[in-house]
Structures are given as structure tokens and as C-alpha cells.
């Protein structure tokens, strides 16, 4: 390894020390990731946008700069970075520290279930647990929570994604239910512009229709075999304490009213009229389980866990609504 240069280090706007590119201090992908992790910890960044810790976030940013899929990191971890690439990586690390914007906004990309999606400040950065649940609970196979919720994915003919945002969940649903026509609704025109780009990127214009409006209103009396939704569910206390990273996102996508359940209540109250008899609702509500169970003690909500969540998503069949 080359000896460290005696050239004075550059000091970023946030007060963090950044090495001079080409000094020999940082050579491999791992070197840059270690450096980024140190800067992120020093700056006390928040991680809530597809990555849950500084190591994963650093790896995401380094790989995106080098045009590598996250799954390729291990294969190139010890590969050397060119001076030009290193300069771009350090500039991106500095932007993450000084702007406190979510990493996904800095590179206009997020991955869900291994698939890339475009994202920018017009919509919330997607990080729903529903994508994982579509894979684990809707494939016709038994699982540890009592079997698949829809025995035959090929039988699903219609899916609705409420509060679609960037359209990621609707697009994932199109892969899980290949015979389904999909509607996706959002009240935000800006979010739907992002969703339209993602729908076009995946060539789904003929299967996936975007609608602007307030929940079920633009859909008339249409019914669906499956409704999925990740609505705004942050309560007033949570809104007041959002980290700077989250404040870069549209407030509309977070605010769920005083107890976080304003939109969820409306969905529960109206969903039955838009489900087929054998259909069901899959809804993410964050940490509002107890409040929801207190508000709807008569509903047999089935709470589903994922690798990173415990009881933040519920399922209920149309017959039980």
C-alpha cells in the first residue's frame, strides 16, 4: 500500500476531515466505506430510508457512484478506486453529511426487493415492509404464520395500491400477481409524476393505471381482489420529532393526524365496499398497533412480521370488515 501523503487534508463544510483524492489514503471500496461510516457517525446522521445503519448507507452510496448493484459489493470490495471515482465518492459523502438529505435523493435511486426505482424530493423515499410480505405471504406456500394469505397468486385479477407515492409497491405487486390489472392512487400530483416514470421504466403502462385523488374517490365502485397500502401514519408527537432527513420528504406523506390513524381509519371504514368477497386488505401502520386495536376491537386483524418489523402491518379479509 502506498505511504500516506503529507499533503494537508481538506476540511469539509461540516468540519469533517476529507483526504485529498490521490493521496493514497483511500484506495479500495472498503477504504471509502470505512471513511464514510466514520463521517456519518461523526455527523450523527439518521438512517431510515432503505438502509438502517451507516455501513449499509455507505455501501449504497459507494456502489451507486461506481454503477454497481448492491449485490456486487462483495465481489469488488477490495478493488481499487480510480482518482476520478474517488473524487465523486468523497463529494457524495460530503453532500450526505452537509445537506442531511436522504441518500436516495442524492443518487435518485432506491432499491426494493433488489429492484431499482427512481425517486426524488417529489415523493417519500419508499421503505415499506409490504414488499417483503408480498413475497413471503402471497406465494401459495406455507409459512411460519399460518400459510399463504392468497393461495394462488395467478387467480388475483385486480390489485389496488392506495397512497402509492413513487409506485414501487404497485410495481412489485405486478410481479407477484402476473395476471392482475393494477390501479394505484395518490393525492399528490408530484408523487404521481415520479410513479409514472417508474411505471414506464418497467414497461407496465398497459397493466398499471395511475389515478390522482383522495383514497377511493377516483375509483368509483370498482372492487379488487387485493388492496395494499402504506398510508401516512405518523402521529403528532412523531411529526414534531422527525429527523432532518425525514423533513426533506413531503410532509403530506407522513402526517396521520393526532394519533397517526386518520387515514388508516378511513381506509378501514371504506375498504369493504371496494373488495371482492374473497379479497383482503394489507395495510402498514408503523407503531400504531395498540391504538388501532383499541379503536377497532371487533376486527380480527392479523399482524404480520418481517425481518425488520414486528406487528407494523396487518391483514384482514373482506368478510371480516
Structural summary, described in words:
With 321 residues, this protein is of the alpha/beta class. It has 2 domains: 10-107, Helicase, Ruva Protein, domain 3 (Orthogonal Bundle); 128-320, Vaccinia Virus protein VP39 (Rossmann fold). Helices cover 34% and strands 17% of the residues. It has helices spanning 29-43, 54-65, 73-76, 83-99, 103-107, 130-137, 168-176, 189-201, 236-240, 244-247, 262-271, 289-295; strands at residues 10-11, 17-18, 110-112, 115-117, 158-162, 181-186, 208-212, 224-229, 275-284, 302-306, 309-317. α1 (29-43) packs parallel to α4 and α6 (130-137) packs parallel to α7. The chain starts with 9 loop residues before the first strand and ends with a strand.
Short description:
The chain contains twelve helices and eleven strands. With 321 residues, the protein is α/β, with parallel strands linked by helices. The strands form three sheets. The protein has a seven-stranded mixed beta sheet with strand order 7-6-5-8-9-11-10, covered by helices on one side. A two-stranded antiparallel sheet has the order 1-2.
Protein topology:
Layout: E1 10-11, E2 17-18, H1 29-43, H2 54-65, H3 73-76, H4 83-99, H5 103-107, E3 110-112, E4 115-117, H6 130-137, E5 158-162, H7 168-176, E6 181-186, H8 189-201, E7 208-212, E8 224-229, H9 236-240, H10 244-247, H11 262-271, E9 275-284, H12 289-295, E10 302-306, E11 309-317
Parallel strand pairs: 5-6, 5-8, 6-7, 8-9
Antiparallel strand pairs: 1-2, 3-4, 9-11, 10-11
Helix pairs in contact: 1-2, 1-4, 2-4, 6-7
Amino acid at each position: 500500500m502506498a505511504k500516506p501523503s503529507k499533503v494537508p487534508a481538506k476540511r469539509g463544510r461540516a468540519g469533517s476531515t476529507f483526504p485529498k483524492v490521490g493521496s493514497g489514503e483511500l484506495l479500495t471500496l472498503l477504504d471509502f466505506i470505512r471513511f464514510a461510516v466514520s463521517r456519518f457517525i461523526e455527523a450523527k446522521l439518521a438512517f431510515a430510508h432503505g438502509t438502517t445503519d451507516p455501513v449499509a448507507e455507505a455501501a449504497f452510496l459507494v456502489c451507486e457512484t461506481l454503477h454497481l448493484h448492491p449485490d456486487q459489493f462483495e465481489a469488488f470490495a477490495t478493488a481499487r478506486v480510480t482518482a476520478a471515482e474517488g473524487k465523486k465518492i468523497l463529494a457524495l459523502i460530503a453532500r450526505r453529511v452537509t445537506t442531511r438529505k436522504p441518500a436516495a435523493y442524492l443518487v435518485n435511486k432506491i432499491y426494493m426487493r433488489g429492484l431499482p426505482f427512481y425517486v426524488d424530493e417529489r415523493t417519500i423515499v419508499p421503505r415499506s415492509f409490504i414488499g417483503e410480505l408480498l413475497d413471503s405471504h402471497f406465494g401459495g406456500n406455507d409459512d411460519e404464520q399460518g400459510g399463504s394469505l392468497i393461495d394462488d397468486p395467478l387467480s388475483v385479477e385486480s390489485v389496488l395500491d392506495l397512497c402509492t407515492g413513487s409506485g414501487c409497491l404497485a410495481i412489485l405487486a405486478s410481479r407477484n400477481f402476473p395476471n392482475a390489472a393494477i390501479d394505484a392512487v395518490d393525492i399528490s400530483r408530484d408523487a404521481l409524476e415520479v410513479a409514472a416514470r417508474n411505471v414506464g421504466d418497467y414497461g407496465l403502462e398497459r397493466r398499471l393505471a395511475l389515478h390522482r385523488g383522495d383514497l377511493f374517490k377516483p375509483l368509483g365502485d370498482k372492487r379488487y381482489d387485493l388492496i395494499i397500502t402504506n398510508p401516512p401514519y405518523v402521529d403528532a408527537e412523531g411529526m414534531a420529532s422527525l429527523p432532518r432527513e425525514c423533513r426533506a420528504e413531503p410532509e403530506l406523506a407522513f402526517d396521520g393526524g393526532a394519533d397517526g390513524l386518520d387515514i388508516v381509519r378511513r381506509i378501514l371504514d371504506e375498504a369493504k365496499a371496494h373488495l371482492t368477497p374473497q379479497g383482503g386488505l394489507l395495510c402498514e401502520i408503523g407503531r400504531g398497533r395498540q391504538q388501532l386495536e383499541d379503536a377497532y376491537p371487533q376486527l380480527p386483524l392479523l399482524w404480520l412480521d418481517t425481518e425488520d418489523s414486528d406487528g407494523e402491518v396487518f391483514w384482514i379479509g373482506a368478510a371480516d370488515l
